[in-house]
Write a structure and sequence with these properties.
By secondary structure, the protein is an alpha+beta fold. The chain has 10 helices and 19 strands. The longest helix has 16 residues. The protein binds flavin-adenine dinucleotide (FAD). The site of flavin-adenine dinucleotide has 40 residues, from α1, β12 and β17.
Length: 383
């Protein structure tokens, strides 16, 4: 029977980061199994490429601050571009939320994040309609990353240190014996191992069930409209997020006239559908027209519009660490933040597997136990 010390299921940015961090710690017998013929074809390849530390909970802020430093300092070019995130409030409740959360972000070490007035917002992005805006927040270290470049950086370095990535290798089940994960089953045979790390994104919960674990991760389609302007876009546009409806837009990477826009469509049902629905275009343009009239003048680039899956957990926070099955670990449920949190996630998993707990950051609040204990976290601004 084929053997590996640690088997990682899923070759997206999270599985690759876990492999990178395990091999960095000297654990080289790591095998990553990916069912597709290439890596990154899951949610990683669909992501918008945003990174922010403007979150509500301490754990999300801390995961982001760690990851921002990682992206900034990494010798690999991962496309980190701190253009900033501008959150817009249209009523006092949203503004008070942004004021409270930015205060906490500063307390936790996010220097530079600040509340901004409507006049500040007009100066930052003059093209916005500010008629109904009462203020906002500005996070200058937030910005953009390149999801596939991050994946490539993790894979290349993990492989150089001994990890193996096997493509077209779908895992059908995780075998448990005497309360411990002992192997995984694939179409071309069983692979014995000491530990299994489940990094299968939106598809993780069926695999967890084969080991008898109820992993509360559900798939939800997210769509992005890609458009082109006939004129050069304003320079240095940040990510802009309208708190009233979740509408957000960013300039496309390395482009002066293309832009991506979207919003969190709460009516999307739980499903594995990744087909782009053309009716989404008009819904998003409706919101764009109001908030940023220049976006309404753009033309849709239909072939670049895309849909992927969010891997939602019940409290929109990730699920990290072990469970009641010995040697079975999870890195799932990122609820749309898996690329930006991939560096901290990979390090946390490597420390949990090799040392028993993560010491660089206390991630115990993200353990799967929280659902049984009723200790759910709360984050308002998931976009
Ligand atoms: C439209 C959209 C925009 C987003 N924007 C952002 C953003 O701006 N910033 C951000 O941080 N995040 C964003 N996200 C979320 C982000 O893409 C995910 O959180 C992240 O990619 C999760 O990485 P992953 O490796 O866990 O999952 P994935 O990239 O989905 O990788 C899981 C892998 O597991 C494989 N797999 C599944 N089942 C099996 C099996 N049985 N056997 C073997 N392999 C299997 C899949 O093929 C896949 O390659 C966005 C997501 C979407 C859809």
């Amino acid at each position: 029977m084929q053997k590996a010390e640690i088997v990682i299921i899923g070759g997206g940015v999270v599985g690759a980061s876990v492999a990178y961090h395990l091999t960095e710690r000297g654990c080289h017998d790591v095998l990553v199994l990916e069912r597709e013929s290439s890596l990154g074809l899951g949610s990683t390849g669909k992501a918008t490429g945003g990174v922010r530390a403007q979150f509500e909970t301490d754990i999300n802020i801390n995961l982001s601050l760690y990851s921002l430093d990682f992206f900034n300092d990494w010798e690999h070019d991962c496309g980190y571009d701190p253009r900033g995130y501008l959150f817009l409030a249209t009523d006092d409740k949203q503004l008070s939320y942004l004021q409270t959360t930015s205060l906490r972000q500063r307390e936790l070490g996010y220097n530079g994040v600040s509340t901004v007035t409507t006049d500040d917002i007009r100066r930052l992005v003059p093209q916005l309609n500010c008629d109904d805006i009462v203020g906002g927040t500005w996070g200058p270290r937030d910005g953009f990353i390149d999801p596939l470049a991050i994946l490539d950086g993790f894979v290349t370095r993990a492989e150089a240190r001994g990890a193996r990535f096997e493509r077209t290798r779908e895992v059908s089940s995780i075998k448990v014996s005497n309360g411990k994960a002992v192997s995984v089953t694939t179409a071309n045979g069983e692979i014995a191992c000491d530990a299994v790390v489940l990094c299968a994104g939106a598809w993780a919960s069926d695999l967890a069930a084969t080991a008898g674990i109820d992993l509360p991760v559900t798939p939800q389609r997210r769509q992005i409209v890609w458009a082109k302007s006939s004129e050069v876009l304003p320079a240095n546009l940040p990510m802009v997020i309208d708190m009233s409806n979740g509408f957000h837009f960013r300039p496309a990477k390395n482009s002066v006239d293309e832009v991506l826009f979207a919003y969190a469509d709460q009516s999307e049902p739980t499903s594995f559908c990744t087909e782009f629905d053309d009716s989404f275009i008009e819904k998003v343009y409706d919101k764009a027209r109001h908030r940023a009239p220049f976006l309404a003048e753009t033309t849709v680039v239909r072939e670049k519009c895309r849909a992927g899956l969010y891997e939602n957990s019940p409290d929109h926070h990730s699920i990290l660490g072990g469970c009641e099955v010995g040697g079975l670990y999870f890195a799932n449920g990122f609820s749309g933040h898996g690329v930006m949190h991939s560096p901290a996630t990979g390090r946390a998993l490597a420390e949990i597997i090799l040392d028993g707990e993560a010491s660089f950051l206390d991630v115990s609040s993200l353990s799967i136990d929280r659902f049984a204990k009723g200790e759910l976290l709360h984050e308002t601004a998931f976009i």
